[in-house]
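Hi team,

As requested, here is the filled-out complex form for the heme C run. I kept the field names the same as last time so the parser does not choke. Let me know if anything looks off before we queue the next batch.

— J.
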Amino acid sequence: MSAQDKTGVVHVYDDIEELDNHLPNWWLFLLWITVGFAFGYWYYFHTTGEGRGSLEVYRAEAAEAARLAEARKPKPDSDAGLMLLTKDSATVDEGRQNFQQTCAACHGLKGEGIIGPNLTDNAWLHGGKPTDINKVVNEGVLAKGMPAWEKVLGPQRVRSVVAYVLTLKNTNIPGKAPQGEPEK
Ligand code: HEC
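And here is what came back:
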């Protein structure tokens, strides 16, 4: 069988005959599309520095998420931040110990009041909001015999003691009669 016996153009190499068919247009079309795409891809990701790899995208998103989570956390000295501390039993326990050592002499072992007011009722001389209590404990009411604790205890122990005092609110332990305004 020679090449001329076949219809169409044939080439023979090493005794193997092949028709010189054109590649189908759809196939060529796809080929050139992918070649074009490869150039575009290379240009975008490797030349301009514009395209970011998935790892870079992931790192950027993770950093942004961490930043947002940090921003959403309530500030430690805000009402919400102090209330959050009351949910942490280690902090409240620490606060109870500090209270019994430093505050009980005037406020009673359970906060029921002696010289200082009852801290377990609903009435407050200086406000019952977490930030109000935090302020009184930090700055004291020196003229009325309540010392300032900020320098003595430091921020960590003040916060824990405030968290503990917040857990006493409205537990109404019998002791000194309510003083001040009932908290709304
Ligand atoms: C030397 C006694 C004394 C000690 C110790 C003391 N307090 Fe007081 N505290 C007082 C007096 C007196 C008042 C009332 C101040 C007033 O009349 O304005 C007071 C008020 C307060 C108030 C405000 C109560 C209200 O009705 O608004 C809080 C809260 C408080 N003390 C927490 C503490 C904490 C917490 C400690 C320990 C870190 C502490 N105190 C230690 C004497 C004391």
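Two things worth flagging: The pocket of heme C is lined by residues 102-103, 105-107, 115-117, 119, 124-126, 133, 136-137, 141, 144-147, 149, 161, 165, 180 (CB under 6 Å). The two ends are 107 Å apart (CA to CA).

Thanks,
J.
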